[in-house]
Amino acid sequence: MKTGSILAAAMALPGMLPSAHAQVTVPNATLIQFKYLYYRDYQDSGNRITVKSPALYLLAPISESWVFEIGAVYDSITGASPYYHTVLSGASGEGVEDKRAAGDITVTKYFGRTAISARAAYSTEDDYKSVAGGLTLRHATPDQNTTFTLGGGYSSDQISPADGPAFTRTKTTVDGIVGISQVLSKNDTAQVNLYYAQQRGYLTDPYKALYGVDQRPDKRDQMAALIRWNHYFEGLKASLRTSYRFYHDDWEINAHTGTVEWAQELPYGFTLTPSVRYTSQSAAFFYYDPVYDAALGPPFPPGYVNNPNGFYTSDQRLSAFGGITPGIKVAKSFVGGWSVDAKAEYYEQRADWRVGGDGSPGLQDFKAQLYQVGVSKKF
Amino acid sequence: MASHCQVRVYAPDESVAREWSDAAIAEVRRIESKYSRYRDDSVTAAINRAAGGAAIPVDAETAALLDFASALHAQSEGLFDLTSGVLRGAWDFKAQRVPSQEAIGKLLTHVGWSKVTWLAPTLRLDAGMEIDFGGIGKEYAADRAATLLMDLGARHGLVNLGGDVRIIGPHADGNAWKIAVQDPRGNPGATIAHLEVSHGAMATSGDYERYFESNGRRYSHLLDPRTGWPVEFWRSVSVVAPIAIAAGACATVAMLTPVDRALKFLDAQGVRYLAVDAVGHQHSK
Which residue, of A104, B199, B237, B241, has the greatest Cβ tally within 10 A? Predict the structure, then answer.
């Protein structure tokens, strides 16, 4: 008898397997996942924030059409955040120490090719409380080749700074998403998502406001558009995942982010995924460069005395910059539903890496490292 | 189809179950009427009518089936042959008569996939030749119907077309389906084993479906298309594979192959099986 796989020949027949990307389907297994994240960011002037964050996630189909998800995360945050621009708190090592606990619950009901999810989330730390909720509707066409997503959410946050004068302020966010995913061929999928969010209330950084100068508008309207294209290379057993995201808000920040990932299947159930992300953004209209008022000195921007109630920020995140994030992830799945993964990412942000090279001057480069390990089990 | 067929599926409610099973049954009927050799309006009949004439074009689905049959013919060294149905002209299982070698020899000149001109998408048969999708059609229909159910959202269930079974997924509680294997020498319904299958498919080929005995010898419908005579290596071969058409093809080829080589073949194909040889010994993996 000749060798050669009869199965391989049979798989070439049409309609032997369900659509490769069936998108609105009830998960048929319970999943428990644990992840541990370590993150630190730093500049030449010293370490900034370190976050250690264990997280637990459970997904459980509780009937033929109901699925229940629950997530819990605990962050411990230490370090120092700059008073203004990239000037850190004094050498005394005075810094932040905060704990954040957060949990969320999502319940999804499937009606054939339509799914409705309701999500509620709660997060609390010493100086911050957040309550959020949302609804998402997903619907797939009969061939499952096209999926529509429509979602909306609301969150209400309460800020009570731990240092300085006692006050409590609130912030609310209303957001929406509309999206479409399309299977283009057996090996290609594309996705377009549009996001819109309205933030209202206290959007200032209370600590920068205390030690530096930070006064922000009490409204921020944000929109983003995401385009994603994934291609599977059958011969190489690898997926190329690419995406581009455009972001715009009425603080006049425009950001462009491109991501490329290569997920390579390897023997023994290993997957190796190198990735790179590049982002470039313009500054908020009220960001001021580290050039200070001649009379008042730092952190006051020139002309501050004449306009003390104007909008100002020295937050590096609202400056103009370019950032590059190389990363690598390795995952292995085992028989019996176990899988483990580990991920490392490095981020570096520089003014002259902005598209065109004209980022905000006078800031130290900003760097971050992220490490994450995870283990999950499917039943 | 002239056999016991069932669609079993767990659905959110009865109306969905009805909608799903109607769709699955419609797909099976579509394939049956498209490829039945008993229907004048079928693709099979049109191809056979054109034998001896010009090459005729076929549709994409038929082309895929012909490609598969062609690959299977090569991999089985001619044991699987879409044109072997002509031999039915000599073997009349109702009359229970052993044909003459001369009669078989005459028909064999019209048997052989290698005599067919298959240049996708056109097919040409020599005069007197016929093709018959009976050897793969039922399994193909089971796969297509199950895939359709999965695309509609079904996650638990099976499609069983006369013992060729494609699983959609295990029972809703996660337990595997227990699929009975017919006792090849017992009464209909008597079983020798149950195979547990939660994903994939199972197909059985047996010498008990059509046969007669003459002068103490058993003549089954399992004809070696190269000689035109029945072979008697196995009473039955049941194969578990990811899809029914592959399971069925492996079972058919193994049935026509001597025991040692058949077991090697099944191992090489990476399938699970339960096979009962001519003297009743069971072989399984």
Answer: B237
Domain tally for chain B? 2
| Of residues B125, B84, B76, B102, the one with CA closest to residue B222 | B84
Task: Choose among A101, A121, A286, A124: nearest CA to A203.
Answer: A286
pLDDT value, residue B172? 81
Of A86, A83, A46, give the one whose Cα is nearest residue A290. Answer: A86
Is B268 part of a structural domain of the chain?
yes
3-class DSSP state for residue A357? coil
User: Alpha-carbon torsion B208, B211, B217, B222, what sign?
Assistant: negative
Q: How many CB atoms lie within 10 A of CB B267?
A: 11
Provide the pLDDT for residue A17: 81
Give buried/exposed letters for B86-100 (b at 16+ CB in 10 A, else e).
bbeebbeeeeeeebe
Name which of A3, A5, A6 to mutate to probe chain B: the one with the most chain B Cβ atoms within 10 A of its Cβ. A6
Domain boundary, last residue among B102, B124, B146: B124
The list of chain B residues with pLDDT below 70 reads: 1-2
Q: Chain B: give the shortest CA distance to residue A30, in Å.
A: 11
Q: What contacts B141, CB < 8 A, 6 or more positions away?
A: B1, B27, B28, B31, B32, B161
**Same structural domain for residues B269 and B196?**
yes
Asked if B252 and B241 touch (Cβ cutoff 8 Å), the reply is: no
Q: Which residues of A touch B144 (CB under 8 A)?
A: 15-16
User: DSSP of A87-128, one letter per residue?
Assistant: BPPPTT---EEEEEEEEEEEEEEEETTEEEEEEEEEEEETTE
User: Residue B204 pairs with which residues in a beta bridge?
Assistant: B238
Contact A15 B10 (CB under 8 A): no
Residues 135-164 of A with CB under 8 A from B: 142-144
Q: At B66, phi and psi to the nearest 5?
A: -65, -40
The per-residue pLDDT for A93 is: 46
Structure tokens given for B122: 């056109």
Contacts of B150 in chain A (CB under 8 A): 18, 22
Q: Using alpha carbons, select from B90, B140, B119, B118 the residue that is nearest to residue B248.
A: B140
- Residues near B146 by beta carbon (within 8 Å), at least 6 away in sequence: B24, B157, B158, B159, B166, B167, B168, B244
**CA gyration radius, chain B:** 19
> What is residue A22's predicted lDDT score, i.e. its pLDDT?
47
Q: Is residue B12 part of a domain?
A: no
Dihedral in degrees, nearest 10, Cα atoms B3, B4, B10, B15: 80
Domains detected in chain A = 18-378 (2.40.160.40)
CATH number at residue B181: 3.10.520.10
CATH number at residue B99: 1.10.3980.10
Tokens matching residue A93: 């090592």
**B195-238 confidence digits (pLDDT tens):** 889 889 999 998 887 888 888 888 888 889 999 999 989 999 99
Complex confidence, ipTM: 0.91
Cα distance between residue A286 and residue A312, in whole Å: 5
Give every CB contact of residue B279 below 8 A, 6+ residues apart in sequence.
none
Question: Among all chains, which residue has been given the structure tokens 């409380």?
Answer: A129
Contact A64 B61 (CB under 8 A): no
| pLDDT value of residue A89 | 64
**Domain span including residue B106:** 43-124
Residue B278 falls inside a structural domain: yes
Model confidence at A92: pLDDT above 70:
no
Q: Of A196, A267, A273, whose CA–CA distance to A230 is shortest?
A: A273
